[in-house]
């Protein structure tokens, strides 16, 4: 798929068909994510590919448990329906103080790449600076060493919904020349 | 350009030809970035497009002034050669606690899109959690209101270098099934 079509067509998808996602497709997405830029070219990424139903259910429960009040409209139960979930993580010592940034750059590639390959996904964060217990619970569930930071939780599946169209702000309202 | 080619071919480019970047190309990149996902669909982005030579020089000086010791091998002087610089910013109140994440998702699209459109770029951060004076200096230089957070500084230009090839870690060393 053309790059611009991948960007313009991608939407957040939270309902998936039961159809399995081939391992080769997941590996292609992870491989693409590894081409992202990273601070000092540290390439700090690790990817936990979750297919086990019990682990998916517990990840959903963890996200629900730590869901802030403002985001209660988006429960994480749908994670259980995703054929596969990729948890993007980074090695702290190879992130050079930019763990979140490095993790989000790889996350972006998986979200876009999923759409380019016919899949749907949505970005859930795996940490909250004001609630360290969230990342700790995910670390425990996925057996992550202390040196590894979980960044995002990306369900992958063939879409079973067509998200409503959305309105974007006019370009002239968000572009500023030389100074704000 | 095909999505996968944009991801695999993108490299960090720090040398640019003098050739101007058409406004329409910059606007296309900013428009694409506005299609990124954002927390609660807040679409918090603002983009400051810097073409003024004096502002570019001062942005380079600010980045050099706050460069951490570990990153001294990458001075920011080259920012002055870029025909245009896009500073990705986010409105705090529309970021729902995810300013950096929202900003980096849009940053990723500009970095990839630049390559897809024949340009080179590289990601410089516009803040440092341990050194708030960096964002403050950029905020002052770009006349950003207190409600706006600068996230990344993205020079854009036609490449005047071919970055050396790089080695990526083997996929099996960074992919983990179900648990780490």
Describe the protein's architecture and organization:
The structure is a homodimer of 180-residue chains. Chain A is an alpha+beta fold and 180 residues long. The first copy, chain A, has one domain: 3-Layer(aba) Sandwich (NADH Oxidase). Chain A contains 6 helices and 5 strands; from the N terminus they run ααβαβαβαβαβ. The first copy, chain A, has helices at 3-9, 23-33, 53-65, 99-116, 132-142, 171-174, and strands at 45-50, 84-91, 124-125, 148-156, 175-177. In chain A, helix 1 (3-9) crosses helix 4 and helix 3 packs antiparallel against helix 5. The interface between A and B is large, with 71 and 71 residues.
Largest sheet of chain A: 4 strands, antiparallel
Number of helices of chain A: 6
Secondary-structure arrangement, i.e. CATH architecture of chain A: 3-Layer(aba) Sandwich
Tell me the count of domains of chain A.
1
Strand order of the largest sheet of chain A: 1-2-4-3
State the distance separating the first and last CA atoms of chain A: 35 Å
What is the CATH superfamily of chain A?
NADH Oxidase
Share in β-strands of chain A? 15-25%
Proportion of residues in helical segments of chain A: 25-40%
Residue-averaged pLDDT of chain A, rounded? Answer: 96
Low-confidence stretches of chain A: none
Order of helices and strands of chain A: HHEHEHEHEHE
Write down the CATH topology of chain A: NADH Oxidase
Q: Which chains share the greatest interface?
A: A-B, 71 and 71 residues
Task: Tell the overall outline of chain A.
Answer: globular
CATH top level assignment of chain A: Alpha Beta
Q: How many extended strands of chain A?
A: 5
